[in-house]
Predict the structure.
Amino acid sequence: MRYELLVGLRYTRAKRRNHFVSFISAVSMIGIALGVAALIVVLSVMNGFQKEVRARILGVASHVQISGPDNELAGWRAVAEGARGQPHVVAAAPYVNAQGLLQHEGGVRGVLVRGVVPELENAVAEIGSHMTAGRLEALAPGEFGIVLGVDLARALRAYPGDRVTLIAPQGLVTPAGVIPRLKQFKVVGVFDVGFFEYDSGLALVHLEDAQRLYQMDDRVSGVRLKLDDLFQARTVARDVTRALGRDLYVSDWTRSHANFFRAVQIEKTMMFIILTLIIAVAAFNMVSTLVIAVTDKQSDIAILRTLGASPASIMQIFIVQGAVIGVLGTVIGVAGGIALALNIDVVVPALERLLSIQFLAKDVYMISDLPSDLQRGDVVAIAAVALALGFLATLYPSWRAARVRPAEALRYE
């Protein structure tokens, strides 16, 4: 073992005459560990939040959506067949999107009405697997059944078997004025996808019933596509546009929800920068620790210099001492951060029960559970930043130690 490493390690573990140096070293190590652990947990939670929300949005929305001018598309079967022939497209389903008002027992709610074909809709969305009552297949043409989101059904106090009135914005012109179109629907099911926007504002009816109510004849609003790889959505949208060669508007999920996912990514970047400052503060504490250590060890440095140690060797001794603090703090922080990130689904509910509060209200934060997605790249990047800051913190004190003059240090010894 090189003597620089041996002396540096000895300085780290030996009892110091100045206990204040030991205290600052421990504070610096704890500061680095807390900063690293906090950064790993926060980024893991943000990754999990982004992944969970994306999965829930795309479980109800679509990977790629094809629509026509004025939100109407004729000949949807040919469009769906042409789209299914493209790579990565695994399913296609028509839909009708319209606005409406639902009324039941004096309660009124504005809703997004979506007309679907149940057997095709199950291939492009996951609503059928999130039914809490009834089945999506209960929607039959001509029977005017309706499936409600769980929060919408609760707000209207409408349950399976009840009849609700759907008021369409398109009215009938009569000599007495414009009369809104009204139709009674029977509640045949309730779904809970865990996304408040859809659970509180989406109602599903059969495609033919929606076409009849909104006077669309055989036209639909568009065709929804499901892909085997959602990250190929932009490429597929471009290929579908070229292949169909019609006056169509093709959008993908990265465009329709671009602002939301961009905001999450920007927030993740800013949190990384802000929490890195915690590690930087701990690194500055390391500077103070090593400067005090250099002052405390001036006579030892002078003796080593008189024995032939070069200034570069003196620098290496104190770099080793600072590196030990930085490495131990990083290792402890990485281990603690990984452990907490992997068990966040246990820790947070325990804190909620202990404090009798709910950190994530479903109607505010879209999801009520705190997800976590630990990614190796984030852990490596955080550890690298912590080690780099720790190394930079050792440079000035080590350089100052190398400039100690033996004669002046030993003058009063």
Summary: The radius of gyration is 32 Å. The mean pLDDT is 80.
